Amino acid sequence: MNLFHIAWRNMQQRGLATILTMLSMALGVCMVVLVLGISWVITESFSRNSNVGYNLIVGARGGSLQLTLNAVYYLSQPVGTIPYELFLEFLPGDGRAEEIHRVGGKIEEPDRKGLYSPYMSGGFAIPVCLGDYFGRFRVVGTTPDFFEKLQYGEMNDLKYRFASGRNFKDYDAENGYFEAVLGAQCAAERKCQVGDTLKTTHGDPEGDGHGQAFKIVGILEPTGTPNDRAAFINIEGFYLMEGHARAFENPMHPDADKEDVGEGGAQLPPRLALEKRDITAILVRTGNPMFAMNMQTTVKKSEVAEAASPIFEIGNLFSNFVDPVRYALLAVTTVVCFVSAISILVSIYNSMNERRRDIAVMRALGARRDVVLFVVLLESLLIACLGGLLGWLAGHSLGAVASSMIEYRSGVRVTFVNTITYYELWLIPGLVILATIAGVVPAFVAYQTNVSKNLGA
Amino acid sequence: MLAIQNLYRSFLLPDQTRLPVLDIPHLHINSGEQVVLIGESGGGKTTLLHCIAGILTPDKGTIELDGIHITKLSEAGRDRVRAAKIGYVFQTFNLLPGFTALENVRLGMTFGTGKHNVARAINLLERVGLGDRMHHRPGALSVGQQQRVAVARALANKPRLLLADEPTANIDPSNQQKIIDLIRENCREEGIALLLVTHSMHVAGQFNRVQQLEQLNRVCQSTAADAH
Fold it and tell me: Could you tell me the pTM of the whole model?
């Protein structure tokens, strides 16, 4: 029989008190694990999308963080819109002129190159229009480039693939400008299949419905990005829906001063004219990543729009908001663990009076003072570590049990194992230190026990 | 085997005066010898046993056990000697309630030789008639059975000296003789010296050497003289 066995028997002897103390430690550790797990989910859901395949987001002036949250994560409402003309300035090479003649309408200097085109050689610019909803899911009006040019994943090397169907087209002979693609989760939750139609609501999930239906032509494979939780429609169809055309002229650039290039794409049905188009954001990848900083400064100085670097903004979000909250929660849960440690101390200390005789007996049988001290410390350590193990298992099990809800909310797949972080290794020395602190007072009482006095006859 | 010379022990009273309890000029017990110690309550019998076991340290004098001067040892040294060479049977048994009978016996081995001779522990329990109760906790055993476990535990490390402090005081008369026989037989079989404290003249009458504390202890003698 070793000292471990003796400590175990002492714990059994005080079964209910031991279990309750263990549970209080389990609760503390469970909370630590949950906080770490939740912060992992948050980090994962943001970081896996921070490498978005573009290095600049251009949108209405306001907060660059809100612009990022809005355009990358489809969170919060758009700050405002920017004119489509600005998007044209980002098109590489002769893209501006080509796009003007493809769309048609009135614009100043239709045949010049875009202002930012020198930065854009080898890059791309993709327009995004937000504001509509499909159920609870955001509707993104964009071009087919969104799925052809953007890539995702930590290394930004994964192409968007379709579980069924295909990408929407700029114009389709059968569906016209009204084709849509659904993210995996959106399709699953809305029980949509290729061939179905969708109608969007304006402004918010409970807003007025648009009468225009879009044919669903493709459903994306799950990507673990916010795009799983969005519906993508052709931007040309988006513009043709009621209420999506610009209602007022830009007083700085009156239409009368613009040159009319006529209707674009002669054989196709008319599109919304250039001067009536607004967009929420432009997703820009410069030809050379080094140009992004310069371009961002230039856009900001123009005072027409805001330019944000998504990676920088996400980094800022973490260091300014997420990390402090995480540390605050960890501090609270650490306090809970300390309280649990104190309950271990109180529990063992309270039992010392009734155990003095047992300790005296052990001493009379030849146990040295340091041995009885060690037995009490071991007991505290066992309670703390078993409680900790229980809490650790409970924390990860809760995460696994709630995995479908977490995935539904965040797009992050949670299993028992993948939320285990190396931070949790700190739990081991943490628990040992707490157990030692909790055990040291009763252990000292055991150490000091007067054998002769407590033996009785 | 056990030699006590000029043993003096007193206790500090709340008024800071010292109350003498033991003043024994000489006591000697040979190896394997069985001695019964009788005396009045409060006469210092338990204090003497505690001093011999190294649980208490005397103010003066020497205690030598098997050639080892217990009184010169550190506390840890006395613990080691107690674990290895002394078995102790208490009046109130002092079994640990959370441990089975077998574990209580093995507990003595844990702090003693460190050798976990489970076979000996089982054998001892069988010898005291508890072969079928070794996995029972003290609460499930009768008073007599508990004291038998205590005897087995005291013998676990093959001590050189067994100290028994009124081992039958809390046991019904029908079991008292069985416990005394058990202790004496086992000590005889294993060559263990025995110092047994009792109030019972019936028990004392069975021993060849009966030692009255009043004859040994000068404190008792002076108290008696003061009474006269």
Answer: 0.70
User: How near does any CA of chain A get to the CA of B48, in Å?
Assistant: 11
pLDDT at residue B30 greater than cutoff 90: yes
Residues of chain B with C-beta less than 8 angstroms from the C-beta of A371: 111
User: A with B: how many residue pairs have Cβ under 8 Å apart?
Assistant: 86
B116 interaction partners in chain A (CB closer than 8 Å): 1
Q: What is the DSSP letter of A418?
A: T
Q: Do A366 and B112 touch (CB under 8 A)?
A: yes
A9:B153 CB<8 A: no
Structure tokens at B74: 């550190």
Tally of CA atoms within 13 A in the half-sphere of B119 that contains its CB: 0
Query: A136-195 pLDDT, tens per residue?
Result: 899 999 999 999 999 887 777 889 999 999 999 999 999 999 999 999 999 999 999 999
Which tokens in the block code for residue A35? 């906080």
Domain ranges of chain A: 3-45+320-455, 51-316
* Residue A75: strand, helix, or coil: coil
Q: What is the DSSP string of A190-240?
A: HT--TT-EEEEEESSTTSPEEEEEEEEEEEEPP-SSGGGGEEEEEHHHHHH
Classify residue B210 by burial, with Cβ atoms within 10 Å: 0-12, 13-18, 19+.
middle
Full set of structural domains in chain B with CATH: 2-227 (3.40.50.300)
For A451, name the nearest residue in chain B, comparing CA atoms only. Answer: B55
The residue assigned the tokens 């044919």 is: A215
CA A376 vs. chain centroid, Å, equals 45
Prediction ipTM score = 0.87
pLDDT, tens digit, for every residue of B84-126? 899 999 888 889 988 999 999 998 888 876 677 899 899 999 9
